[in-house]
Amino acid sequence: MAPTTLATAPLATTPPPAAAPTVDLLSEPTFEECIEEWNRYHDDVAAGRLNGANVPVNNYFAYHGGRIIDYDPDF
């Protein structure tokens, strides 16, 4: 017996997952979010949790969420 719907039919596609965040990735962080990250950074430095051993000399790094995300020689 032949299938009743083709795999390329519009109804056969799966919808995107409902748990996907609806956050605008290009939006600017709020002042409060910036202060929270600034405080977390300084707490990590004071406690010795920030390890910049993998960042080359004379490079700037991007820190977010308690870890170094990336680094680059250009500010």
Automatic annotation (TrEMBL):
Stretches for region Disordered: 1-24
Compositionally biased intervals (Low complexity): 1-12
Protein name, entry field: Uncharacterized protein
